[in-house]
Fold:
Amino acid sequence: MHEIKLEKLDDNRWLVPKVGAMRVPGIIYASVKIHDLLGHDESAKQVANVAHLPGIVNFSLAMPDVHWGYGFPIGGVAAFDMEEGIISPGGVGYDINCGCRLMTTELTLPDIRERIKDLTVGLYQHIPAGVGSTGHVKLSGKDQKKVLEDGAAWAVKAGFGSVSDLETTEDGGCMTGADPEQVSVRAMERGKEQLGTLGSGNHFLEIEVVEEIFDEKAARAFGLRKGQIVVMIHTGSRGLGYQICDDYLALMVKHQSETGIALPDRQLACTYLSSPRGRNYLAAMACGANYAWANRQILMHLTREVFEKTLRIAPRELQMRLVYDVCHNIAKIESFNLAGIEKKLCVHRKGATRAYPAGHEVVPARYRSVGQPVLIPGDMGAGSYVLVGQEKAMSETFGSACHGAGRVMSRTQAIKSSRGRSISRELADQGVLVMSAGKGTLSEEMPEAYKDLNDVVQVVHDAGIACKVAKLKSIACIKG
Amino acid sequence: MKKIRFLVDAVIIDYNNAMLNYTFFDHTADIGVEIFGQTRKELFANASLALKEILFDIPSTEPLRGRKKIITVEGADTTDLLINYLREILYLVNGEGWIVRNAEITRCGSKRLTANLQLEPFDQKKYAIKVELKAVTYHNASVKKEHSGWRAKVIFDV
Structure:
């Protein structure tokens, strides 16, 4: 593995030793099997690079879905001191508040077995997906500012869903401190027509069935039961978020020398949290986060419409209810107990999900006795997992767990190994109906391109940072 | 440091005559490109062609049409200049709906360039768009002057 030799700490954790200008060591959560995959890319080096940043607390962390990103590894978690620490737009990622939303229904597989194709076609036609797709919601400048300030609450007010949805959205679907004045004209322009769109790449909307329950108590609290039809949505802040990240990254690279911070990789460009530029980025990032929450709220509403119309059932019969909505590309100011002292830190989660335990005040009241739902989408064939946050996450990972399976194959390799095969046919044989807007998307996103989701989830479960509640099997998937 | 493995695949990428101007390399999540040029101007012109090829399926026989746009870009050094230049082109695509069909670099120093771009409005019915690029990243980016000319590396976030 390049120059980095990982030291095994226990069955689920590997130490990246502190060398050179690293301020703290790194820890990668991985089984032996996942560790062996790390040698194929530069993710361990990226964990070490993040450890060079000022104000980093305890460790530079990576979850078991870790893979080679740009700057931070995907699956990276790092917390920074509010006075001495930094904020890095690249540590949040281009897709600000990319995340997942899981909805339950009162339907079971026999209820829709004959209508799966109709439902999938309906979703594909009703939900804009694909590169540069535009949405049903056209925003005036004034409305767009409200979206950026109010997030999912704006969407509810505009008629997409109900107020109760906000209770089970991380942060209530609105990050405080959003200031549209800190968002560029370019970003605003890109956001105007993309609200209510799925996007492309690894973003998707899936109909799934609850295949297995591991934790009855938590499943009951989350409203999940075996055989139930659920829907998972995975998308983020679209072009608006990408532009906010890129604008601030360019700005921070330009002024990096003024900060006096030496970087092992320019993509880690950053500034002090306490600086005006750092505060401006946080205010702009919150706008991106809020746009993403409004986006997923609208997509949930469109999904509900398709189900009701296609199956000709009333809302009361469908009962599409939001289990939870989590973000997995974000920087958040959160409180942690450091050696007995409660301290506010800025936690960067770059492809990592918050995983708060039972009893924590930010966990919605209805889940507080079990903990926060942690939504882990897999590849098209693997389905998804629902986990629940554990106390150990607070002491070890700044309240974080993994966010998916994590790529193991490059897009080129995936296209190459899918040549001569019909991925949609193979998935259909496994009982998964797939519709995709982009012709190359299915090849790039083929199941073998990802790590085995079961292996990834088992690591966070065994490490005790988030425990398995339910496994969801894919039935149908629409992709951009 | 481990050498990045090059996986040139002419079928996937459809190089045509561009083979000597740029090649694509593997990155787990994203798309990497290595660009070559006899001169710095040629390097930058080829970079925009590589970006066009990642994004669009346009037959090489398709005549150039549309309008011209002159842009001036600045950077802290040549690598930053290349990122900012590609960033500007990507915005014209993602933000304004243009295809940058061709680029003539009229002036190019280490920190500033002027380019004359050939823009065609993107028409989904006419051309297929292959992938959504979120951004041009600084990760492992480099521009070097070598014995035989210029060589650069850039990774795009997909």
